[in-house]
């Protein structure tokens, strides 16, 4: 699946009030053309997703708010790897739905991860 990383910021167009997103000129290095500036903005990624069962195209997965290129690339690679787990389109759709559920409710996913980390030492300290 095709995935891209890019930078976004919260600057708005003075005339229209619309968010500039990845088109903000401050995100580019002066005279650097396609190079992203290292300072302002946050990293984001977009990943193409498998189509619906009836063949309808699905909107790509978009996540933003990463501090570094390393972070955003790691998460994009992780998402790609999840989709590559199985070639069966049915399995891919199930994985996709789970990923979308997680990205809609990130707090719930983070909490369940934390719970897993906390419960491990508790178990070892339980008396026999
Ligand atoms: Zn900006």
Give a written overview of the molecule:
The chain has 128 residues and is an alpha+beta fold. Residues 113-126 have low confidence and may be disordered. Helix 2 (89-104) packs across helix 3. A three-stranded antiparallel sheet has the order 1-2-3, with helices on one face. The chain has one domain (3-105). The chain has three helices and three strands. The structure holds zinc ion (ZN). Zinc ion is lined by residues 9, 11, 20, 24, 26-27, 40. Zinc ion binds at residues 9, 11, 20, 24, 26-27, 40.
Write the layout of secondary structure elements.
Layout: E1 3-8, E2 42-47, E3 61-66, H1 69-83, H2 89-104, H3 106-125
Antiparallel strand pairs: 1-2, 2-3
This protein binds zinc ion.
Main traits of this protein?
128 residues; three-stranded antiparallel sheet; elongated; disordered C terminus; binds zinc ion; AP2-like integrase N-terminal domain-containing protein
Report the average pLDDT across residues.
81
Number of strands: 3
Which class do the helix and strand fractions yield?
alpha+beta
The H/E string reads EEEHHH
Outline the biggest β-sheet. Answer: 3 strands, antiparallel
As laid out across the biggest beta sheet, the strand order is 1-2-3
Estimate percent helicity. 25-40%
Rg, Å, rounded:
19 Å
First and last CA, distance:
49 Å
Short structural description:
The chain is an alpha+beta fold. The chain is 40% helix and 14% strand. It is built from three helices and three strands.
């Amino acid at each position: 699946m095709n995935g891209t990383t890019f930078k976004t910021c919260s600057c708005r167009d003075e005339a229209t009030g619309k968010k500039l997103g990845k088109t903000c000129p401050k995100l580019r290095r002066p005279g650097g053309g396609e190079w992203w500036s290292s300072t302002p903005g946050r990293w984001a990624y977009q990943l193409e997703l498998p189509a619906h069962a009836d063949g309808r195209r699905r909107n790509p997965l978009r996540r933003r708010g990463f501090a570094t290129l390393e972070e955003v690339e790691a998460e994009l690679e992780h998402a790609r790897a999840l989709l590559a787990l199985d070639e069966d389109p049915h399995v891919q759709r199930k994985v996709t739905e789970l990923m979308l559920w997680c990205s809609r409710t990130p707090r719930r996913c983070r909490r369940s991860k934390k719970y897993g980390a906390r419960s491990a030492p508790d178990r070892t300290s339980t008396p026999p």
